[in-house]
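User: Show me a protein chain along with its predicted structure.
Assistant: Here is one chain, sequence first, then C-alpha cells.
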Amino acid sequence: METNIKEPWLLTRDEMAIAVIEGRYDFPTLGGDHHPASNEVWTIRNPDMPNYDIEKIQWDRLIAQEHEAVVAIAISEGKVVPQRVMEQYPNMLVQE
C-alpha cells in the first residue's frame, strides 16, 4: 500500500478522506507542519461512539478545509488540477 500521497490535489475530497482513513495521508497543510489525523480516524471508524454525529461533522469540515487548501496551493504553484477536482470548487479561478 502506498504510504504517502505526494500529490493530494489530484484527489477528490472523498478520495482524500479515504486516503486519510487508510493512513496514506495526514494533514501537513493545516495548523503548521503536521496535523496527525489518528484521533479523527479512530472516531470515524467507531460510529457507535457517543457524539459520533458531532465528530463526523468536524471530520467532514477538516477534510474539506484540507482539500481546498491543497487545491488552492497547487493552483497558485501552477500545477494542473484535474477537472473532476475543480468541479468541487466552481468559485476557484484557474488562470491559464
